[in-house]
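Aim 2 progress update. The chain analyzed this quarter is reproduced below.
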Amino acid sequence: MSDVEAVRPGEDERPIAADVGVVIVAGGSGSRAGGPTGELKQFRWVGDKPMLLHAVQAFQRRTDVALVVCVLPRSHAADPPPWLFQCDLDRLLVSTGGRDRGESVWSGLEDLPDELAVAVIHDAARPLVTDATIEAVIAGARHGHGAVAALPVVDTLKEVDADGRVLRTVGREGLWRAQTPQAFPLRMIEHAYVEARRAGISATDDAALCERLGFEVRVVRGSERALKVTEEADFARAERLASLVD
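Predicted structure tokens:
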């Protein structure tokens, strides 16, 4: 990696190294989202562009981001959609996803240059991530700990059995809903994934792999705009959020 110097928009003229690598996970089939036959969820449009393109461009707005790795399904990695090349190609790499999210994240992490200091992991299914959230998680990782975008739980929680019978009410104090992006010192998240793979452990949350090893992880305030588009009904909500000004 070249010794790129950059300055974040809105800050003073102190130069900083472009030392952040981003892995955007877009390797799933998105079957629950419905949509046109054969169209992947992460390629569908929200607002004025496809979901994946929203995410890539959000991170490439930062001049401290050296590389964005898009992890696509094997069926699309060799022939990405042409709109993806609207991005900064010098800072874009397409990687092939695995059998599950964990394998896809690991594939992306392996493609990050060793010289980088911070790794950010983000789900393409959250297209409307805000600049403020990205800044907050990266700042946390620069302080040497994991940083997870999250929102405090405000609803009453019920534990139920398989028949829908309420077993108990769960206290919500201290509970947060984890989102992405999540950022880590690169060596931390690499070590967490190596140990998880050695133990045969998989997780849908990257920070959980760091937590099991005793690494410090903190939450930072996320955003309701970072809706995870999972089902068909989520697209309408995402469209409404995309129409709002940050």
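Helices lie at 51-60, 74-77, 101-110, 131-142, 186-199, 206-211, 232-242. Residues 186-199 form the longest helix (14 residues). These observations will guide the mutagenesis experiments scheduled for the next reporting period.
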